[in-house]
Each structure stands twice: as structure tokens, then as C-alpha cells.
Amino acid sequence: MDRYSSWLDPDNLSQEMMEYYANEALESVGSVAIIDKDFRMVYINDKYADSLGIDRLKSLGRPVSEVIDNTNMTNVAKTGHPELGVIYSRNGVNFVINKFPIMKNGEFMGIVGISTFQDNDKLISLKLRLDNLVKELNYYKDKSKKQNAAKYSIDDIISQNDTMLKLKLLVHKMASTKSTVLISGESGTGKELFAHALHSLSRRSGMPFQRINCSTIPENLIESELFGYEKGTFTGASKDGKLGEFEVANGGTMMMDEIDSLPLSMQAKLLRVLQEKEIRRIGGKETIDIDVRMIFTTNKDLLSMVRSGQFREDLYYRINVMNISIPPLRERKEDIPYIIERFIQKYNREMGMRVTGISPEALDLLMGYEWPGNIRELENYVERAFIYSTGGMLGLEHFDFLEKLPAADSIEGHEKPIFEETKLRDMVARVEREAISEAMSRFDGNKKRAAESLGVDRSVFYEKLRRYGIG
Ligand SMILES: Nc1ncnc2c1ncn2[C@@H]1O[C@H](COP(=O)(O)OP(=O)(O)OP(=O)(O)O)[C@@H](O)[C@H]1O
Ligand SMILES: [Mg+2]
């Protein structure tokens, strides 16, 4: 037996020694106080007593409220959970206190309160700063909601393509009406751009432009987001009730993105609003007149969704009054140089660079690509090229990631062994991992689009992201 294990032998450790160690430990932790289940002081260490300016021994057995005023212990007693980082002041000095319940067989026995003095100043200023930041964040959230003005105008839609030019003319005409518009097109083709332009050109441009994305709002929140609710309608809801998006958008324009993902139950409710032009808040009695220009967007074939019963036919005809169908970039490749030019101006401005253009070889490469992610993908690539560039012309070398993009990359690009793995499972995993990370970077980390581009179900895709540690 060595000397340490003999020390730890309970028979060799006197009661006195144990008390000594316990006391030293409690003094070294910081300011410590222990109270029993009736909130009487059982223990307070020297450090704490000194800082409070009280007599340690005289305070024992007294109600905690008399010794340490304005401290609240009932929460911890009631919940049985620790309460951490609570700031309270005494005689103008701030304390950060952590309170831990003492439980025995599930029964509340008392509380130990610990304040670590050395860190107090730092902790307090951090906590106060955090409180301020949270306030600020809420303020800006609120403000940005109120200021939901349109960001783009019709001149931001760059194109020399015939179909696109006709669409731009059509937008001018549509702007003077209140008709519902359905904008369809693949991901990244500029649906949102068109919606903004339509709002900006209309008489409603000074009124709110509200956007909601049907695929990102949790299903159980859609109804209250759209219609709002009266005060006290359900527990957990804000006390004062909440304005729904329709009311906020009143007088202006509302864009409902990815309308194809609206659950069938909500489709029926939306149809009612479009027909009656009025809404009723959840839990409310009166109806409220709604004057909102509705714009819907989708990258799905809604008609085939109607045929397969996933989308209500009556709603389809309601929202498909006027249609803007934006062609994918690969069907208007003549636009590529113009759009690149616009992005070069944009990133020169944003990054303070002096890129002067793109070399003919690099442009050739981009013209030969199929652009499954459309203009958003093109923009990502130009932005990426800017990061590699130091100014002057963007050349092939700034787009070399594109040359490696085709699936062949993983097979041809390797030197000797095509695959180091010998197990089929491992080979498949490697190719899968590469395909997934490529899709993720192509769609700028947007999991939904990356999954769609690979033709896999979102849940399967998430599973694989986790498995390969991507994103
Ligand atoms: N014709 C265009 N000229 C210039 N920029 C464009 C054009 N079309 C799209 N963009 C830009 O490409 C990006 C994607 O466009 P937008 O967000 O409107 O696409 P979307 O069709 O709404 O895509 P998603 O279906 O993924 O929501 C935006 O940054 C937008 O400004
Ligand atoms: Mg969009």
C-alpha cells in the first residue's frame, strides 16, 4: 500500500481532518452559504460573511432573509433545479450567485449558494452586455419586420433573352393590376427578384412587402403566422395576441414562397381568404377585410401535384391567374456574360477589388456548364473566383474548382490506385461523401436544394450529412 491510498483509507482519516479539508475546500471555492429546507442558515464561510460584513457564527440558525436580504430561494426549492448566474445587489455591490438544491431521496433538503468572487466583475459585465444584445436583437428583428420593403427593382433583372424581355414587359403590365400572380421556375432563376420588381412597380410600393416561406415554417405555426391570434387564445402564446402576416401586409403585397409545400389543411384555409378577401384571427370573432396583392412562387410542377392529389385543384386555379414562368439559365446562356458583368461590379464594390472582366477561356468554361443551380449558382462561382483573384481579369485558374466538378473527377483525378478502398461499401461511401459535399457547396450550404439536386429525400440527406460530418 502506498502512502496515498493509506491517506484515503477512511479509518485513517479522522473526523477532524475531514472537517478541516471540507472547510478549506469550501473557503477556496468562493463565497459559500448553505441553508436548510426551512430557509435557515446552516453554514456560511468566512469569505462570504466578511463580504457581507456580518458575524459568521451569529448568523447561523437565522432565516436567510434576515442575513442576506433580497435573495430568492423559493424557485430552487420549488423546481428542484439549480439557478445559475443570477445577479443581485447588496449595498451597491453586485454578486453573481449560483444556487444548487440539496436533495435526499427526491426530497428537498436545502440549498447551497456559491458566488465565485474573482470572476464577478467579468461575469457581470458579460451578463449585462448579453442582456443588452438580446434587447438589441429583438429591436432589430422587430424593425426589419416593419421595414419589409422590396429590395430589388425591375432593372436588377439582367437579361437579353427574348422570353425574359417579354416577361419584364409583362411585369410592367401586371403592376397596375391587383391580380394574383404565380411565379414558377427552377431554384435560383430569379423568382424572388421578379416578385420584388412587381411590388416596386405597383402603386403599393410604399406599403409593406411581406414574404413567407411555406417550406420553412413549422406546420403547427403556419396558421398563427398567417392569421394571428387574439389575446389569451392559447397557453404559451404572447399575452397581447399577435398580428398575422395577412394583416401586416394589408394594403401591400405578400409573397408566399414554395406554395407547393403548404399542407392540404392550410390550402383550404388559404383558398377561403383568396375568395372572401377577409380573415379571422385565431380565437377572434370579427372578420377583418384584407387588401393584399398575392404572389406565389414554386419550383415544382403544380399541375402534376394537382393530378396526384397533393395540391387542391380549386386553389391551383385561384393562384394561377397570371403566370410568370422563368426559363432556367441553361436555356438562355446568352445572358451569362451580362450577368457575370453585373456580379463583377457588385463584388468589386463589396470587396473593394478591381476585377476588370473575365477571360474568353474562363467564359467558355462557364458557357459550357449546365447550371443546375441557375443564377444563384453562377453568383456563388463569381464570388468564389473573387476570393482567389487579386484583381485584373478573372481567368481559368479562378474557376478551376468548376473543371473538377463533373462526377468523373473522383475517378480520373486520382493518381495510382483509383480506389484505395477494397470494400465496395467504402468506395460507395467515398463517392457519396464527395457528391454530397460538392452539392452542399454548389448550393451554398442550402440542404434542401442540395438534397433535391441529388434526388434524395431530405431526411435521408440529413442522415448522410450527419454520418459524413458535412455541414
Ligand atoms: N436576371 C438576373 N439578373 C441578376 N441577378 C439575378 C437574376 N436572376 C437572379 N439573380 C440573382 O440570383 C440570386 C437568386 O435569385 P432569387 O433568389 O430571386 O431566385 P429564386 O428563384 O427565388 O430561387 P429559390 O427557388 O431558390 O428561392 C439572387 O441573388 C438574385 O439577385
Ligand atoms: Mg426564392
UniProtKB/TrEMBL annotation:
Keywords: ATP-binding, DNA-binding, Nucleotide-binding, Transcription, Transcription regulation. Pfam families: AAA_lid_14, HTH_8, Sigma54_activat. Residues 157-387 form the Sigma-54 factor interaction domain. It comes from the Bacteria. This is Transcriptional regulator with PAS, ATPase and Fis domain. It comes from Youngiibacter multivorans.
